[in-house]
Amino acid sequence: MAAVAYDFCVNTLAEADGGAAAAAAGSGATSGAAGMAAPGAAGSGGMSSSTGGTPSGSAGSCDGYATGYWDCCKPHCGWKDNAKSTNHPLLACDKSDNSLGMSYDAQSACNGGNAYQCHNLAPWAVNDKLAYGYSAVGASSGADICGKCYQLDFTGSSHNSEPDPGSTSLAGKTLIVQAINIGSDVAGGQFDVLIPGRGVGMFDACSSQWGVNKADLGETYGGFLLACQKKGDRQNHAGIKSCVMQSCMNVFEAHGLTELAAGCKWFVDWFQVADNPKVKYKEVACPADINGKGMARNGGPGNMCLR
């Protein structure tokens, strides 16, 4: 059993001999070690199943913002040496999105290997106000971040200098992400969320994996969103959403990449094509559904902001 961090103190212990006192003591038994809920279960500080999850408590005190990318590379947390605090490293997939299983030493496709990012890492909506996904975070190569989960509460404003209708539309929504990657171009407090069609960034294994031209993937940094913004009025929210959705259909739907198409449509419908929205964030226990597709980390959440 891994150690679990609690955020309360026990001030008094009293013997319960029976009757009302014993009944009252028994009503809170799940707070003790013997009755401790599993990570992600109700009462554990995590979220419940994918159909009924709710954010964990109030918004965090750390300031940050969310960007997006999808480069198809094997993530940082897919190697054993980088995922020492997890039950197993993140699984990678082959070119056809078949799991490579425990072949954790398989080289990344971005370095000439056959290991790609699995399509099931695309984000998804739990309900109108809550969604789950995976993210790269700002950390050094030796930092122990693999498997940590963060609750991102959107403030309604953008990290960019100009107003953004998409970021405004996100106010009151929450995204829970698991850290599965790092990047030298990812800043402290930045969550570079895995979103199909949001740009390949520094590396591109997607063109060869999907059999498309790199030009079809939109801008290197910004993907479909920035490409659509360059075509028209950035404040025309409906027009930008329609343009991005059409790119989702042309690249993913047309090639039968159903999970990627769903993640791209999520960016339009749930995320409202928000452009680098600001968040208040905190580390939380990972929901079971996120662990299932990602990895399970040993120990409880911390309370430090990412630097």
Written overview of the protein:
The protein is α+β, with helices and mostly antiparallel strands. Helix content is about 20%, strand content about 15%. The protein contains seven helices and seven strands. Helix 4 packs across helix 5 and helix 5 (about 235-250) packs antiparallel against helix 6 (about 260-270). The longest helix has 15 residues, at about 235-250. The two termini are about 30 Å apart. Mean pLDDT is about 85; it is low at about 15-50.
Can you describe this structure in just a few lines?
The chain is an alpha+beta fold. It has seven helices and seven strands. The chain has a single domain, classed as Barwin-like endoglucanases.
CATH architecture: Beta Barrel
Please count the helical segments. 7
Q: Give the overall shape.
A: globular
The share of residues in helices is: 10-25%
Q: How many domain modules? A: 1
Annotation, overall tally of beta strands: 7
H/E topology pattern: HEEEEHEEHHHHEH
User: What structural class do helix, strand and pairing data support?
Assistant: alpha+beta
Proportion of beta-strand residues: 15-25%
Low-confidence stretches: 14-51
Average pLDDT metric: 85
**CATH class (first level) name:** Mainly Beta
Spatial strand sequence of the major β-sheet: 1-6-3-5-4-7
Q: C-alpha Rg, in Å?
A: 21 Å
The CATH topology is what? Barwin-like endoglucanases
For the record, what is the CATH homologous superfamily label?
A: RlpA-like domain
The main β sheet shows up as: 6 strands, mixed, barrel
Measured distance between first and last alpha carbons: 30 Å
